[in-house]
Design brief:
Strand content: under 5%
Number of domains: 2
Largest sheet: none
Amino acid sequence: MGLSDIKKELKKLDHNHLVDLIADLYKKNKAVKEYFDFYINPDEKELFKKYQEKVKEAFFPKRGYRLKLSEGRSAISNFKKLGVSPDLLADLMLYYVEMGVLFTNNFGDIDEPFYDSIAGVYLKALTLMKKENILDKYKIRAEKVVHDTRNIGWGFHDYLGQVYRDFYGE
């Protein structure tokens, strides 16, 4: 079944039935609840703090020591799906990179897939910043990321330095 089939069926429902269906979805699906909560009360800064905590938790869990990169990337993806401003999305992406660098500097070298993930998000963040013409706003943080990787292996520092120079021309 596709979206057009769903729309066709939903158009057949009366208003009250449609409201009941949406309310049921709201109760049963966490992502739907979050979407409607944000739709009704679009407080981007509060939502950003929530997702920033999810990213931090992926690297530095309150319980245990298990690194959960996929949960950090998922937090970025889910934040984006809510239709937030590109500025806050870029900020969250850069925060993910900063947490990855901090994690490495605290616990030592990780592995190539880890660095590929962090570097990929760094490139996407700077690409988004350039598209939105907000590179200058994040220049100090983007540069600090490169500086803070100077003792990290796997070519990670060199790659981030090159990405930084590609965007900032320095």
